[in-house]
Design a protein that fits this description.
globular; mainly beta; four-stranded antiparallel β-sheet; three-stranded antiparallel β-sheet; Archaeosine Trna-guanine Transglycosylase, Chain: A, domain 4
Length: 88
């Protein structure tokens, strides 16, 4: 099966969709991961690889890119509606 996501760093708790993913489709491209998308995820957007609790770091590139603004379930789309930035 063709990979539909890429995880940039092994520390990341999100991956980037390399193609549109439909709700219910398997998330593929990460060995050992068995996960289905809980909603539609557009190409170049993030999908949660694990549950991310409210105020927990969202990690991409091996670095914190923001905090969850509520509980995010594995397989959910991660974007501005559930991700808040961290003050500098």
């Amino acid at each position: 099966m063709e990979a539909n996501v890429v995880r940039i760093n092994t520390r990341d708790n999100v991956a980037v969709a390399v193609m549109d993913i439909k709700c219910g489709d398997p998330v593929t491209g990460i060995p050992g991961l068995a996960l289905r998308a809980r909603e539609d995820i557009k190409r170049n957007h993030k999908v949660a690889l694990t549950e991310i609790r409210d105020n927990a770091p969202v990690i991409k590139y091996g670095e914190t890119i923001g905090l969850a603004s509520g509980n995010i379930q594995e397989g959910e789309w991660v974007h501005t509606h559930n991700l808040k930035t961290v003050g500098a």
